[in-house]
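S.,

Sequence below, as promised.
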Amino acid sequence: MPENQEKKTVFRKLKNTYRFVFYNDSNFEEVWQMRVTLLNFLSVFGFIFLLLVGGSIALVMFTPMREWVPGYPTQAMHNQLVANVMRMDSLEYELQTRDKYFRAMNAFISGREPKLTEPPSDSTNTDYSQITFTRSEQDSLLRKQVEEEEQFNFATGSSPSKETSILKTHFFKPINGVVTNHFNMKENHFGIDLVAKPNEVVKAVLDGTVVISTWTIETGYIIEIQHNANLLSVYKHNANLLKKSGEQVKAGDAIAIIGNSGDLSTGPHLHFEIWQNGKPVNPEDFIVF
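The prediction came back faster than expected:
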């Protein structure tokens, strides 16, 4: 039989009409009948098969049933993986911050000027000469506020020499606020908490060099300043930082904005610490708040 005639015969069989009849077995009465071709039957069967397959795939992809698939992680495993990735990222950031701190301290102790930023990589093509800086409305208001507050400050924060005792040091008040939590060594609270007006400016208590200006999970935006006489002042939970690591500051200079950043913060405030020779001291012993 020729091949062309075979194809016609197969196609003709697909178009043949068949009748399905249901009879009552007791009286042979015709109950229901259906006329269908083999082509229609295959089409309907294929559609139902594709519908079942598509529905099964959708259930597995968009419902919790996907967790039943062998090798697929559960929601708890997925949440744990995300948490681990975030912890690793935070740990890497903390290590980088610590390295920057050690480099800045090493340079400061050695009498060298700390680097403000890391050197640019060889792959950068940025043309820094084309960058223009403009002052925002908030920046102008902040500058005006600081200038108004500092215009009558005369040598209040002069830095003592290394031989000068901390008792003879005249500290500049970091912020105008109310002390809500006092210094307590037994509870590992190495500073005081100060509550002030929103967006209040935080100021440096003495002349010095910024050794840390960064963000951490627990303390939020934090800035630390190294002073003479081996003094270190710490300002935590800020909303924004105005100075970078390595910058020189004067007593009364604006260094941050009071805020509520960090997991350990319970509300808008400034956590302020003073350290001497690696040991915390009570700021209220030297500054009248």
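Confidence is low (pLDDT under 50) at residues 118-124, 151-164.

Coffee later?
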